[in-house]
Sequence to fold (366 residues):
Amino acid sequence: MPYPAKLTTDTILSAALTLLEQGGPDALAMRPLADRLGVRPSSLYRHYPDRAALLGTLEDHAARDLHAAMSQAATGRRGHEALHAAAHAYVEYARSHPHLYGLLLAPRAPGLAGPGAGKDLWNHVLTLIEGVTHTPDDTDAAVALWAFLHGFAVLDRSGQFGLSGPRSGFERGLSSFIRGLTS
Amino acid sequence: MPYPAKLTTDTILSAALTLLEQGGPDALAMRPLADRLGVRPSSLYRHYPDRAALLGTLEDHAARDLHAAMSQAATGRRGHEALHAAAHAYVEYARSHPHLYGLLLAPRAPGLAGPGAGKDLWNHVLTLIEGVTHTPDDTDAAVALWAFLHGFAVLDRSGQFGLSGPRSGFERGLSSFIRGLTS
DNA sequence: GTCTATACTCTGATAGAC
DNA sequence: GTCTATCAGAGTATAGAC
Fold:
């Protein structure tokens, strides 16, 4: 299994992603990461200056990945249909990549608010909203929609609602929300 | 300042709460906690079996505290007014006690879903919803409302929306949601 | 019920040889 | 670009004296 034995930023990133998804952020430590790559921990620092840089790159990856999932789901649909499809893709992504998704809305150091990959995601939400309300740059509505999506994703993960509850609550909430926005 | 120099579960809890609110869950460690109480770390284990027990107690405290804040805000109001007031109290609580609030929806070990203080909070949300929709035990609507509240609290904390965005988004979202529920 | 002392495991990170 | 070796520190928890 051991490859030509050289590291690249991508092979490291891929291994880091696996560790993150399997055991959460605390499991993504430099030593286990090095073990998994068949390498000594210090070697990693040639490719990423520190652990924070690695996490930052993963965060970017998550933003892009989630955005891609929503875009793909909305492709070929318009208005309510596009919004519904993208919303489903959102919670489905959060469900299937819980820890990666968890990086996205972690509190940031003030002033470091990301100008990066999250922007595209935000613009996408704005576009979906516009397709329903016909109001461009309706940030209030976009904030509200995102809040609902994120909140649902977290509640779903927390497992506080037994088994059946969440899913139908999602349909009901999303529909009510859209109806309320457009009336 | 040093008192009769004896620990109680409550003095420990109070100091733990301070550490938690000041520096987040990672700052709540046994050693700093003991320092703050003028005591050796090992002494703490006479009162709490381990750190997890301490966190669990704090979690209960958070649930009760948040519930109290919502109840007080809703007292003397009915229907939409009660719901709006409690909703505001919710996000305000999350804003002023971010780390304590953060304990509430942390993922739990499956099967350990809390039968504890969170139940009262849930029932309160159900009552608020019933006051608006006149439907008892409308769990779908309650899940949707809670999702929106929680999601907004997190987005607000994440600071990804500049400064002005979130607040008006909250009003818009809450009103739309209620309108959608009742139409 | 608090103390001293300590065991143990884990972390991120660096210097310098090869 | 990877290695060995190591630093400097964090953490939870326990045994046994007082």
Q: What stands out?
A: Chain B touches chain A through 49 residues (CB under 8 Å).
